[in-house]
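Final report, results section. Input specification for complex C-07:
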Amino acid sequence: MELTIIIAIATMGGLGFLFAGGLAFADKKLRVEENPLIGKVNEVLPNANCGGCGYAGCYDFAVNVVDGKALPTGCPVGGEETARNIAEILGVETGTTIKMVPKILCRGGNSEAVKKMTEYYGPISCKAMALVSGGDKLCFYGCLGGGDCVDACPFGAMIMNENGLPEVMEEICTGCGICVKACPRNIIEMHPVDRNVFVFCKNQDDPKRSKEVCSVACIGCGICARKSDGGIEMVNNLGIINYDKLDASKIPFEKCSTGAIQEIGGRDITVN
Amino acid sequence: MISLSHSKTFKGGVHPYERKVLTENMPFEFMPNPKQIIIPLTQHLGKAAKPIVKKGTEVKAGELIAEQDGFISSPVHSPVSGKVSKITVGANVIGFPKDAIVIESNETNEIVFMPLLDPEKVTPDEIRERVKIAGIVGQGGAAFPTYIKLSPPPDKKIDVIILNGCECEPYLTRDYRYMIERTNDLIAGLRLIMKAVGVEKGAIGIEDNKPDAIIKLTEAVKDYPNISIEVLETKYPQGAEKMLIKAVTGKEVPPGKLPFDVGAVIQNIGTAIAINDAVAKGEPQFTAALTVSGLGINQPKNLIVPIGTPLSDILDFCGGVKENAVKVVVGGPMMGVAQYDFSAPVMKATSGILVLTDEEVNEHEESTCLRCGKCIDACPLNLIPTKLARLSSLEKFEDAEQLGITVCMECGTCTYTCPANIPLVQWIRFGKQRVMALQKERQSA
Amino acid sequence: METKSVNPSYKLELTSSPHVHSRWSTKQAMWFVVIALIPALVSAVVFFGPYQLLIVLTSVVFCVGTEFLIKKIRKRKTTVGDGSAVITGLLLGLILPPNFSLSSTAIGAVFSIAIGKEVFGGLGYNIFNPALVGRAFLQAAFPVAITTWTNPNFSVDTVTSATPLAAYKFDKIFTSIQPMFLGNIGGSLGETSALAILIGGIFLIAVGVVNYRVPLAMIVGILIFAGVFWMIDPVKYPNPAFQLLAGGFLFGTFFMATDWVTSPLTSKGMWIFGLGIAFLVVVIRIFGGLPEGVMYAILIMNSVVPIINRYTYPRIFGEAK
Amino acid sequence: MDLFIIFISAAIVNNFVLSLFLGICPFLGVSNKTSSALSMGMAVTFVMVLTAIVSWILYFLILIPFKLEFLQIPSFILVIASLVQFVEMVIKKVSQPLYRALGIFLPLITTNCAILGLALLLSMREYSLIQSIIFGLGAGAGFTLALFIMAGIREELELTDVPKPFRGVPISLITAGLLALAFMGFAGMI
Amino acid sequence: MKIVIHMITTLTLIGVIVGGLLSEINDWASPLIAANQKAETEKAIFLVQPEGKSYETIPKTGIEIYRVYGADKNLVGYSMVSVGNGFQGKVKIMTGLSKDLSEINIIEILEQVETPGLGTKITEEPFKDQFKGLQTTPQVNWVKGKVPEQPNEIQTITGATISSKSVVTIINSGLAQARNLKERGVL
Amino acid sequence: MKKNKSLGYEYIKGLWEINPVFKQVLGMCPALAVTVSVMNGLAMGLATTFVLVFSSLLISSIRKFIPNQVRIAAFIVVIATFVTIADLVMKAKFPELSKALGPFVPLIVVNCLILGRQEAFSSKNNPLRSLMDALGNGTGFLIALVVMGGIREMIGSRTLLDYPILPAGFEPWLIMILPAGAFLTLGLLMGLANFYVDKKKRNQQQELIAKYRKPSTTLEIKGEEA
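Structure output:
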C-alpha cells in the first residue's frame, strides 16, 4: 500500500508538472497582443466556456462582441446583467464617459406629416417601405413609422406611440446604438444624455415643399442660424447644430415657425 | 413559311396573363401638347443632365435645354416650344422626386431639327456622335445612355447586335406597333447600329405570340442576309438582356458581366427607331411612344407623347380612370413602378401606363413560405428567391450575398408565381441595395 | 396639380413590383391534398370498417383544435382556414393502426401540431413532417398498442394479424403481391391499398401540387436498393415489388415525403432526398430491429433537408459550370 | 466485423449525443453554423482519437498494473487537458488557417464530457487499443453527424418564427428530441 | 521565469496532494467496493440456485460458471453467466442449470440496456418465470403470439420480440458452451 | 463587482434567478441523462452539489496562491479529486445508485456548471460567499433534476419514487423515459420557464413604460434625470 501511495503521488505530481510546464511554455511563446476592450468584455462574462453563445468559448465571444459580430445579449449564461455590462463597456468605447442615448430627429407623426394620395401595401417595415416610393408620407426624409428601430432594440427601451413615432425610454436604454443602424432614413442619432437642443427634422427640401409635406418640418428659413453665432449652420435647407459652438441662450426658439428646433426640458413649445 | 414550333428560349420563367389584346390593334395616336411640360433632368441611368436654360428662357421644340454632365449621362431637349417657368424638384415616375425643368408650352410648335445625315455614307463615329447629342437612351427600362452601348471597349469582340422585340411584359404593345408600323425604319436603325459597332451580324428576337410582326419583319429583311429573325418562345422574362442572349446565341452572361463580354450588344426596338430618326430625320429624342392600357382605363391606346407630359393629362386623354381601378403603374405590370403622384411626367424610356383593377392584380393574402419551390423553378437566373427574401428581411446580408443576391434583376417572376404571395422582390431589392453598399464599402476599405 | 382623371373617393394602392400575380394560392394547394386523400380514406373504411372514420375524425379535430388554440395563445392570426392542420390530422389518422384507441389518437394529434409544427413557428417553418412526428411519438410512447394489427375485412388468413413486413421480419413469410396492391392486408388505415394511394398521388402530380421528382426518386431508389439485396439472396431478402408495396412506403412516397415544407427546394436535392429515404427504408427494414422504417427514414431525411438544400443550390445563371 | 459494429454503434445506433447525452453543451452551443459545426466536429473527432489512444495507454499500461484505478478521473482529465493544450499549440505553430478553423474550438473541448465519457467508456468496456481507436473514431463521427445535422436545422430555424420563449436553447432541445425520435429507427441494428 | 516556477510548483503540489489524498480514500473504499461486487455475484448465484448454500468458481472455462453445492455439500447444479447482444446492447444473464444441464432452474437478467418499458420486460417476472423448469433439449425455443406447446418453448413479449429472442439465443449459446465443457469433463 | 449583495442572496439566486439548468443552460448532460426517475435525479443532484460545494470552498480558499495561467488546470484537478471521492463513496455505500447513474458520476468533472462557478465566482470571492453560491447553485441544480425526474417518472412509468400515483387506467408514455423524451421534456420546461419570465418581464416593462413615458404630444424630455 505504501508503494501505491508513492506511485499515486508521483503520477499526479508528474502530470501536474508536465502540464504546468507546457502551459508556461505556451504562455511564453504564444502570447498575442489584443484589443484591451476584449479583455474587459471577457472579464464580465461568466467564463464557463460552455459554448452556449455559439462561439468557441467566452473569449471568442468577447472578440466577436467587440468586433460587432455578436450582440451584447448573446451570452445565455450571463443573462441580462452581463448584457448590460457588455453594452456599457461598448458604449464607453466612443471615448466619452457620458451616457449616450438615441434621439429621434423627426416629429412628423401621423398627425403632422402629410400623406400621399396612395396607400402603401406590403410588409410593414421601414426598410421595405422605403423602397416603394418612400411609404405613405410625402416627406422623403422623415420617419416611416414601420417600427424597425423598436423591433431592433434588444432591451425593449423603445415603443411606438399613438402618433406613429418611436420613443426612447432613456432610463432603460443602454446606449448600444442598434436602433441607429436599424433606421433606413437615418433620423436616429446618438447624443450625450445631457444634450438638450436638437433640430427635430432631417428634411432637405426647399422651403415650399417642406411646408407642403409636414407641419413640423425644418423649412430652412435660417433664422436660428443667423442668430446662433455659428452654433447652427444651414446645409441643404436644414439647420445642422454644431454642438461645440452652440449657445442655447442665443437660439430664438420661439421664432421657429414650425418648432423644428427645440430645447427639451426647457420651454414647452406645443405646435398645432 | 415561318415555323413557330422549335422556338428558342431559356430555363424557368412564367406565363402571366398577357392582355395585349386590349391595345394590340390600335395604331399609334399623337397626343396634343399639354399646357405644361415637366422634364426631369435624370431620364437615364447615371448623372443628371446640367440645365443650360433659366427661368423665363424661350425654347423651341428640339432645342437642347440641359447638357450631358459626365461620361454616363445624357442631354435633354425640349419637346415643345414655350417658356421655361421654373427649375424645381418634381415628382417622378421612378418613385422619388428629382430636379426638373418646367416649360409652359405655346401654340407655335416650332421644331428645330439637327442637320440630316445620309444613312448610307455616315461613318461609325458620326453615328455615335449623333446618338450622343440626340440624347438617346435605351428604351428597355433601365434607360442607359445608348452611345456608350455603341462604343464597346476595343478589347471586346462583338459578334452580333440583337434587337429586342420580345416585349415580354404583359399589356405592353408599343414595340409590337413599332414593328408593324415602322418596319423599315426599324431595319434601317438596326443597320446603323451594326455600322456604328462594326458588326456583320444582326438579329431580331421576337416572341412567337406576334406572328404578324414576324411575317412583316421577315419580309423586310429579305434583302439583308446578315440580319436574322429569331422566333422565341413566349415567356416572361424573355426580353431580359441575359435571357435574350441565352435564347438567341446560347451564351450565358456571367454574373457581374455585361453583354459585351459574350460578344453581344442588345438594343431595344424603340432605340433603333430613335437612332434612325436622329440620323435620317435629324430628330433628337423628345417624344415617347407608350401603351396606355389595363382594365381600369376607359380607352386603352397606343400613344406618342412629348416627354414631360404629366400622367394625369394622358389618363384624361384616354378617357379617364374607371371606378374600380386600384393602382396606376408606369412601365409593365411585372417591373413597373406604382405611382403616387399623377403630376409625374412621362420620360424618354417610359413604355406604358397601366391602370389595374383588383381582378388583374389578383393579390391574395400573404402567408408564410411553404418552400414549395415554385419561385426557384421560375427564377430565370437560378436563384433561391424565397431564401434571399427571408435573409434580406432578417438583415443577414452576408449570407444573401453568398447566395448571389446581386445577380437578381428584379424581374418579378418569383413574386408573380408565389402561392403564398410573399413580396419576394421587394425584400430582395432591399437586400440587394444593402449588399451593394457593403461591397462598395469593402472596396473602398 | 389638377388630376380629375384619378378618382378621389378612395386611395389607390402603392405597392412594389410585380403588380400582377398568378392564380396559385397556398389554400388551393392544401385542399387539393385533402381531396387526394379521399381514396385512401375510403379504402380504410372498406377494409377495416367504419370505426376507422372515428379515428381519422378525432385526429383531424384535435389537430385543428390545437392549431387554433396555439394561434390564440400566441395572439396570431388563425391559420386553420388554410387546411394544413386538416391535412396533418388526416395523414396522422391514416397512418395509425386500425381500431387504435381514440384517446391515444388525440394525444398524438396534439403532439403533431404542438411539437411537430407550432413550436417551430407554424406552417412553413417546421423541420419535420408533423404527422410523422405524431406517429413517431405514439410509436415511442405506446409501442405495443401501435403494433397491434387487425385483419382486414376480407382476409383469407384468419390466424395471423401481422402486417406483411412483420410477417416477413419475424416469421419469414412473404405476402403475395395482389392483395398488397388492393389493400387486403394488415397495416395502417390508409397505407394498405396501393391502388387508392396511387389514385390520390397521381392526382396530386397531375394538378401540379406535387413535384414528380421525389416520388420517382423514392420508387426508383427502393427498386434499386431492394433489388441489390434480392439479387444477393432471394430467399433471405424480399423482392423489390414486395418492398415497394409493403407497409407505408407508397403512402409515404406520395403524401409524406412530398410535403413542400419538409422536402428540399432544389431539383437535385429532391433526387437525393428521395433516394436517401429509399436507402434508409431498405436498411432499416433489413437490418433494423423494427419491421417498418418508412416513418423513420422520412424523419431522418427531413432532418438533413437544410443540409441538402445548402449543397444543392442550382448554379447561378452564367456562373462557370 | 466487430470493429465495424463498434463504429456503427458509436456513430449512429448509440450516438453519443442523441442517446448517451454526452457532449450536450457544445452540441447546443456550437451548432448554429454548419461551417463551425463541421470544424468543431472534426476537432472533436481528432481529439477523441488521440484521447482514445492516450487514455488506453494510461489506463491499461499504467493505472491497472500499478492498481491505481482510483486515479482514473483526475489523471484522465489532466491528460485530456494537456493533450488539448498541446494540440492547440501545435496547430497554432504549424498552420494558422487550420488554427483559425479548428484551434479556436479546442478550449471548448476540454470541458466536453463526450471526450472524458469516451475515455471512461473504453476503459469500462475493456476495449483493445484498435477497438478503442475505432470507438473514438465512431464516436467522433457520430458527434460530428449530430452536430452537422443540428447546425443545418438551426441555420434554417434562424429564419423562422419560433415563439419567443422557445427561441435558442429550448427549440434546439426539442429539435434534438425529435432527432432522437427519428434516430430510434436505427434501434436494434447494433 | 519566476512565474514559471510558481506555476510548476503550484500544479505539482496540487497533484501530489491529490494523489496522496485519493489513495488514502481508496484504501478505505476499495475493500467495501470489492465486497459489494462479491455480494452481488453471490446473490445472483444463489438466486438462480435456491437450494444452493455454497459455490465454487470453475477455472479455465472461458466463461463465468460456478458449481453450486447444497446444504450437505452435494452438487445441486451450475450457475452460468452468459452475455450476448440484445435489441440495443449487451444483455448479461445468470442462468441456473440442473446437474445434467437438461433443465433450467431460474434465470436472472444481470445487465441489459433494452428499450425501457418494452424490452426491459425481460427483467420482469412473467417473462422470467417462463424459464422455470424449462427443458433444454435440443435447445430452448420461442413462439410468437400463441401459447407454447412444447416443454422447451417460451412465448415472446408482445412488442419486444427481438429482446425476447435475444434472451433465448444468449441462453442457448451459453448452454452449448456448458455442454461442450461437460463433454470435456471440465465441469 | 457587486459586493453589496447579502449572503442570503448568494444562496437564493441559484434557486431560480440563475438556475444552472433553466437559466445558465449548464450541466445539461446529467440533467438529460439520469433523470428517468426522481431517485436518480436526487442522487445526481446531491453528488454534484457535494462536489460543487467542496471545490468552491477549497478553491476560494487557495485562490490567491494559484497563478492565473494554471488556474483552469488547478481547478480541474481539484474538481476531479472531489468527484473521485464522491464516486468511491457511492460505489462503496450505495452500489445500486452508482450502477444506475453509470458513468455520469465521473462525468461530473466536466459538468461545466462546476468549472463555471469556480471561474465566475469562487476565484473572485471569499470562501463564505463561495460556499453560499455553491450551495445555491447546487440546490438549483438539484431542484431542476428532481423536477425533470419527477415529470419523466410520473408520465413515463406512472410512479413517483416507485409508488404508483397515477391510476392504473393511465397508459404510461414510454417515450418519457427514452432519450427523446428527455430532450423534449427539458425543452418544453425551459420554454415554459422562459414564457413565465417573459411575462413577468413584460409586466415590468409595462410598469417602466408607464413610469418613464412622457406625454407624446409635447415631446418634452427631461434628459437630466438619467
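Residues 103 and 135 of chain E are 5 Å apart (CA to CA). Helices of chain E lie at 2-48, 125-128, 161-184. This concludes the modelling results for the funded period.
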